[in-house]
Amino acid sequence: MLKKRIIFSLLYKDQKFCLSRNFRLQEIGDINWLLKSYNFEEIAESIDELMILNLSTSNTYNNSFLTDIAKLTKNFFVPITIGGKIRNLIDANEYFSAGADKISLNTIYLENHGVAAEIAEKYGSQAVVASIDYKAFFQEKIPKYKTYNSGSNVNGEELFDRISMVQNLGCGEILIRSVDNDGTGNGLDLKLLEFIPNGLLTVPLIFAGGIGKSEHMHAGLSHPGINAVCTANLLNFVNHGLINARKRLELSNLPISKISQQ
What we know:
The chain is an alpha/beta fold and 262 residues long. It has helices at 31-37, 40-43, 63-72, 89-97, 108-111, 113-123, 159-168, 214-222, 234-237, 240-250; strands at 5-13, 16-21, 24-29, 49-54, 80-83, 102-105, 128-139, 142-149, 153-158, 173-178, 205-208, 228-231.
């Protein structure tokens, strides 16, 4: 049985780290502020993976992003996923060279199917996370799920069609994030799981959007269809927040690795 995982995500925009609520970003500090305010070596003891997403306004990553990743992860020994601004094989290689164990792909699935497939073929499906943002629309109280393009515009594509497509292009796992629940701390959109067609998912599923406390993590990880949960709640879950959440989850019967210090 695959172990369930806790993933912590950092959102990076124009050399600042941010909070997000419904995909509206609020800058809270640069790399120096982050390193001064939080002990990431200690945080690493309470998570299974770290995800860093570049949401900067430019269409490409820049060297400051790679430099800040190097500073942040210097003594950080959990698997790292890096995403954002990947448009070709060269961009993907830069992220792997900067220390990524995996890369997260999103917009490229809309812009260039061929490059997305090339990346998966070159680096292996286990190194590719397909990130999908979605929003629920209701018709006579029945939800319809549409994907978002970079969290800003509904592009009209059905969520389940996107899931099928990214799997066909070779991703090794899928992260789906609710725009409606993002940053609210109201819990995950577990209702969605009732509408995913049987047999559609063939790779592990990461759920994100709405985690505000350990109970939300437990609810997600308890579901047989979810392999990992991801939170970017920098204020609620950094310092002892993640450590305490991990310890509470370890006391449950979830198949989660016991990695925190007792």
